[in-house]
Amino acid sequence: MNELEISLFPIPGSVSLPYNMISLHVFEPRYRKMVKDSIDQNRRIGVAHTLRETAPSKNKVTASEEAILTSNQESYESHSVFSAGFAEILETLPDGRMIIQISMDNRYEIMSELQQVPYKIVRCKIYEDEESYEESIITLRIELDQLLMRLPSPNIEKLKQYLESSEWKSQTALQYSFAIYSLVIFEPEILQKVLEIKSAFDRISFMKDALQNHQTQ
C-alpha cells in the first residue's frame, strides 16, 4: 500500500471532489506558510470538511506571527476522506494574503497524523473505487443526462449544449460520476457522502435518485 504525506487544510462546510479546480483566499499565517512549504516540497494540499471544532485558539488577536506559528491553533476534527492536489499561487496581496488554486487529482484517506503545528500534515493512502464496468453505466448516464436537461434553470439552454458536447460525452465513468455534482447544489454533508461512495455506478445512481425524488416532491 503506497502512502504519501499531505498538508491538510480543514475548512468547515467545504467538500471538494476529484477533477475539480478550486480557488481559495488564504489569510492566516499558518496556512500561508503551509501553501509555501507545500509548493516548495512538492506536497499536495488536501481540503477537508470538518466534523467539529476540538479546541479553540488560545492566541490573542495581538499575538505576533511567530507566536501564532509556534502555538496550538483552533483545531478541527476532519473527515478522514478528502480530495487533494497540488497548489499554485495566483496572487500574493500586499499584506501577505494569497489567492491560490488547487487542482484536485484524487481522493485520499488519512492513515495517521504526522504534524499538528503550525499546520497539519497527515499520512494518507489513495481512496480507491471498487472495480466498475463502464458498460453497466451507459444507460444510466443517458437517463441522468435527460433528467439534468429537465432541471428548472435560467441557463438551461447553455446546460443542454454542455451536456450534448463531445467534452461531456467523452468523460470516463469515473470522471462523469464526479463531474455531475458540479451541476447541482448539494449540502456539504451530502457531498461528503458522495465523496466516500466507492463506485462510479453508485455515485451516478445517487444523483439520479436525488433528482427523481426532488421532481416527485
Architecture overview:
- The chain has 2 domains: 124 residues, Archaeosine Trna-guanine Transglycosylase, Chain: A, domain 4 (Roll), CATH 2.30.130.40; 83 residues.
- Helices cover 34% and strands 30% of the residues.
- The strands form 2 sheets. The chain has a 5-stranded mixed beta barrel. Strands 4-5 form a two-stranded antiparallel ribbon.
- β7 and β8 form a beta hairpin.
- The relative contact order is 0.17.
**Considering the protein shown, what is the CATH homologous superfamily of the largest domain?**
LON domain-like
Question: Could you describe the largest sheet, including whether it forms a barrel?
Answer: 5 strands, mixed, barrel
Please state the structural category. Answer: alpha+beta
Q: How confident overall, as mean pLDDT?
A: 89
SSE arrangement, N to C: EEHEEHEEEEHHHHHH
Number of helices: 8
**What is the level 1 CATH name of the largest domain?**
Mainly Beta
CATH architecture of the largest domain: Roll
Distance between the termini: 45 Å
Tell me the total number of β-strands: 8
